[in-house]
Design brief:
The complex is a heterodimer of chains A (326) and B (522). Chain A starts with a helix and ends in a 6-residue tail after the last helix. A two-stranded antiparallel sheet of chain A has the order 1-2. Chain A is globular and about 85 Å long. Chain A has 13 helices and 2 strands, in the order ααααββααααααααα. Chain A has 2 domains: 109 residues, no CATH class; 174 residues, Orthogonal Bundle (MetI-like fold). Chain A is mostly helical and 326 residues long. Chain B has 3 domains: 114 residues, D-Maltodextrin-Binding Protein, domain 2 (3-Layer(aba) Sandwich); 133 residues, Dipeptide-binding Protein, domain 1 (Alpha-Beta Complex); 219 residues, Dipeptide-binding Protein, Domain 3 (Dipeptide-binding Protein, domain 3, Roll). Chain B has 15 helices and 21 strands. In chain B, strands 1, 8, 9, 10, 11, 12, 13, 14, 15, 16 and 17 form an 11-stranded mixed beta sheet that branches. In chain B, helix 8 runs antiparallel to helix 10 and helix 13 packs antiparallel against helix 14. The longest helix of chain B is centred in the last third of the chain and has 19 residues. The chains are: A mainly alpha (326), B alpha+beta (522). At the A-B interface, strand 1 and helix 7 of A face strand 8, helix 6 and helix 12 of B.
Chain lengths: 326, 522
């Protein structure tokens, strides 16, 4: 019963969050400079043609009216059609205003569905790489507070967080791909193309995981139940693995949820540098082309993913520590 | 403490590690280089494959792989008028208004249809329709007549339009030949969905940002040696160069000067530099104040020291003194081309009623960043030079999409007062630049309406011989343009491509189009 109540409450909150994010993005897109109709119709289109197209598409209606119309479609699963992209998904420039022969526009849902798996794969691999580094460094640092493992964790975290991702991406591509020829770097022809961008993202998120682990493990190791466990004759390894780490994993789990959600929205620069065909590259092109429906669709999907991931994380945390209430 | 159990476990784990083949996870970038040519383009395409529906350079370059042309013009500086026949065996002027085209027999389109005179007729008549967005023709369809005495002969008669048939000679090397069958299906038919040509590569599909082409075995000049071409839009210049360096890309285009330095001397990479058909211009908005005044336009031209721009551009720009590239028909270094002359600038400013620039409104100079090399850098130079002479100019640097949105003339004048843009057409035909931009029937960017310039553009178009036309362009038309200054041509672009050294046999045209029919990885 608790789970049902929990899900109903959190899903209801999630719907409100998605609604607010959608409205914010929808409004911002319409108040910033840049007329999408000009891009759709082509630079040579006279103003009256631009106005006519905009009127036909309802883009001159008041923003709330446009938003209600848009959300009506979204509720029926229709995220609309891209203003710019053809069904092939190519990034395209504007054609001329009186050209009625352009290929059919792509469905926003299809564009997102085609690219999201690439970003998901990238985010999962980045998370795996980050955990591979963060778990041993963070745990060992937490078990030896004030000693060199703790300082190593601190220095490593400081170093990683100081590296700008665009710089690191270019340097890694130069070293690992250009000079050593170990990894492919640009585009996507197979799984190997995910490794370099995943490393860059992992370096970006690992410091948060390391710091969280170090602090929470150190804190748990100072708790009474750990001292008592030793008196009860439980071995050190079991105390650490079965007790301290279990309790230390709750803040880590919450952080993982936040970081994973941030990754989904934060792959813009990395995907652009590596020409990785995921949601990030799609978003950048959509923004540059003022492709309103696509930007809105991506925002809704990303915020929905954020909500779902956080619900899952909270559920998992409650399972680990039943005292927690969300 | 090391126990026997933990020691054995460690040894076992170490032995297991040696059995893992890391190539399962990691494969070399070189090993994944596909067999086809991988071209990374700096510009995206449009959503329509109809060649008459756009003026987008990247898509023209894709067409060059797939489509056939009656002739091709290599456009090298030492022989800009050279013409090689391809789908045509000969192109002959019968008289001032009639052109005879004899076609090569035995050529087929990629869909299996034979290429014949009806296809040339349909291509010309369709492409010149007033509603086609890419207006390359000297006049609309009702201004000329195309007849086909037999399957392999085409006669173009321009007497109805009153202009010379010779205008079709250079256009023949620029207009891709479409299938009459495709054209008959209308602009919403297969024409807009895919390319169907007679060229060395066949259009397969558009896969995201990749245009996939494969070798056409039935190509009339011999099947290509490479398996195909993948033409990919990669917007970031750094990404393109990294792809070149790690061997993933076969060719990349539009290198920045510092990228040229990076790649120079690399043993696996060859650089190709050539003077292009593209001039870069500072266009004035001539249809609104204050640049509707030719005196003020000329004053601005005299404020700009092009030598500094050449220094900024390095190898990406070549000096020229005309409104067309040196490899276009009719080019000449104009004697009256506006040079840097602050005194003359001040004199013209005073004559226009704005001594030292006093009384001028705030002026906006729009440029782009991300496509052309060094636009922001030399835009800042131009802005500073204009300010030095009293022009209250502000530089507005836009990303490409926003700049494109603001590029063209519209009612009441285009956005801003000056805008930076290049114009590139893969033919020696000068009217693809001159008439497009300076005739009042087109306006395009400047919005210029000048009856004197219109008259000279019509006069050169109607010249009965090429020599007469050349004389009018060199002695009357372009000198008048230099005097009225609707734009200032800043320099001629140098097209710089980088390609893998083992890719040989490519022929690059000065508009960026590539003939890869004889290319091979050696």
């Amino acid at each position: 019963m608790f789970i049902v109540n929990f899900l109903i409450r959190r899903l209801a909150q999630g719907v409100v969050i998605i609604f607010l994010v959608s409205f914010l993005i929808f409004t911002l897109l319409r108040v910033i400079p840049g007329d999408p109709v000009r891009l759709m119709a082509g630079g040579m289109a006279p103003d009256h043609v631009i106005d006519q197209i905009a009127e036909d598409m309802g883009l001159r209606d008041p923003i709330p009216v446009q938003f209600v119309r848009y959300m009506g479609g979204v509720l029926q699963g229709d995220l609309g059609q891209s203003f710019i992209r053809p069904a092939s998904g190519a990034a395209v420039g504007g054609a001329s205003f009186d050209d009625n022969t352009r290929s059919e526009r792509a469905e926003v849902f299809d564009l997102i569905a085609d690219t999201a798996p690439f970003t998901l794969q990238l985010a999962l691999l980045a998370m795996a790489f980050a955990l591979i580094v963060a778990l041993p460094v963070g745990i060992y640092g937490g078990l030896r507070p004030g000693k060199w493992p703790d300082r190593l964790a601190l220095y490593m975290g400081s170093l990683f967080i100081s590296l700008p991702n665009f710089w690191l991406g270019i340097v890694l591509a130069l070293v690992l791909s250009v000079n050593l020829g170990w990894l492919p770097a640009i585009g996507y022809q197979g799984f190997a193309y995910t490794i370099l961008p995943a490393i860059v993202l992992a370096v970006e998120i690992a410091p948060f995981l390391i710091r969280s682990l170090t602090v929470s493990v150190a804190q748990n190791m100072r708790e009474n139940y750990i001292s008592v466990a030793a008196i009860r004759g439980i071995g050190h390894r079991r105390i650490v693995m079965a007790h301290a780490l279990k309790n230390a994993s709750v803040p880590l789990l919450n952080l993982l949820g936040v970081q994973f959600s941030m990754l989904l929205g934060g792959v813009l620069v990395v995907e652009f540098i590596f020409d990785y065909p995921g949601l990030g590259l799609l978003t950048i092109n959509a923004v540059l082309q003022r492709d309103f429906p696509l930007i809105q669709g991506i925002a809704i999907v990303t915020s929905a993913a954020f909500v779902v991931i956080n619900i899952i994380v909270d559920l998992a945390a409650t399972t680990i520590d039943p005292r927690l209430e969300y | 403490m090391i126990t026997r159990r933990s020691l054995l476990a460690s040894v076992g784990a170490a032995a297991g590690m040696t059995q893992i083949d890391p190539r399962f996870f990691i494969s070399s970038a070189y090993a994944q280089t596909a067999e086809p040519i991988i071209f990374l383009s700096a510009e995206n395409i449009t959503g329509n494959w109809d060649p008459t529906a756009h003026t987008t350079l990247s898509q023209k370059n894709i067409e060059a792989y797939v489509m056939g042309y009656l002739s091709r013009t290599p456009m090298r500086p030492d022989n800009p008028d050279e013409t090689n026949m391809e789908l045509a065996e000969s192109i002959t002027l019968l008289d001032g208004f009639r052109l005879e085209i004899k076609l090569r027999p035995g050529v087929k389109f990629h869909d299996g249809e034979p290429f014949a005179a009806k296809d040339v007729k349909a291509t010309f008549e369709y492409g010149a329709l007033p509603d086609r967005p890419a207006q390359w023709y000297p006049g609309p369809t009702d201004s000329f007549e195309v007849t086909t005495p037999d399957d392999m002969t085409v006669i173009v008669d321009t007497s109805k339009g009153g202009y010379a048939a010779s205008l079709f000679i250079f256009l023949a090397s620029y207009l891709p030949m479409m299938s009459a069958k495709d054209i008959a299906a209308g602009p919403n038919g297969p024409l807009s969905q895919r390319l169907n040509g007679t060229g060395p590569f066949r259009f397969v599909e558009q896969r995201g940002n990749d245009t996939v082409l494969e070798a056409y075995d039935g190509y009339f000049m011999g099947a290509p040696k490479v398996s195909g071409v993948t033409y990919s839009f990669v917007g970031d210049a750094t990404t393109r160069i990294l792809s070149m360096l790690n061997g993933q890309a076969s060719i990349i285009e539009r290198l920045e000067p510092e990228q040229i330095e990076t790649l120079t001397g690399k043993p696996n990479i060859t650089l190709s530099k050539m003077v292009s058909v593209e001039n870069k211009y500072l266009w004035f908005r001539c249809s609104k104040p204050p640049f509707d005044n030719p005196l003020l336009r000329k004053a601005a031209c005299h404020a700009i020291d092009r030598e500094i721009i050449y220094e900024v551009l390095g190898e990406s720009g070549s000096p020229s003194k005309n409104f067309i590239s040196p490899i276009k028909f009719g080019y000449i270094d104009l004697e009256n081309y506006p040079e840097y002359d602050p005194e003359e600038c001040q004199r013209l400013l005073a004559e226009a009623g704005y001594p030292n620039g006093e009384g001028l409104p705030e002026l906006e100079y729009i440029t782009s960043v991300g496509f052309y090399p060094k636009t922001k850098e030399y835009g800042e130079v131009i802005t500073a030079l204009l300010q030095e002479q009293g022009f209250p100019v502000t530089l507005n640097v836009m990303e490409v999409a926003a700049w494109n949105e603001n590029l063209y003339d519209r009612e009441g004048g285009g956005p801003g007062h000056m805008i930076d843009c290049g114009w590139s057409t893969g033919s020696p035909e000068p009217d693809l630049v001159l008439r497009t931009h300076f005739h009042s029937s087109s306006k395009r960017i400047t919005g210029l309406v000048d009856p004197d310039i219109d008259a000279l553009l019509d006069k050169e178009r109607s010249a009965s011989t090429l020599e007469e036309r050349r004389r009018i362009i060199q002695e009357e038309l372009t000198p008048m343009l230099a005097d009225r200054a609707p734009a200032l041509s800043l320099f001629t672009s140098v097209l710089v491509h980088a390609m893998r050294s083992d890719l040989q046999g490519l022929f690059l045209y000065p508009d960026g189009a590539i003939d890869a029919s004889k290319a091979a990885f050696v």
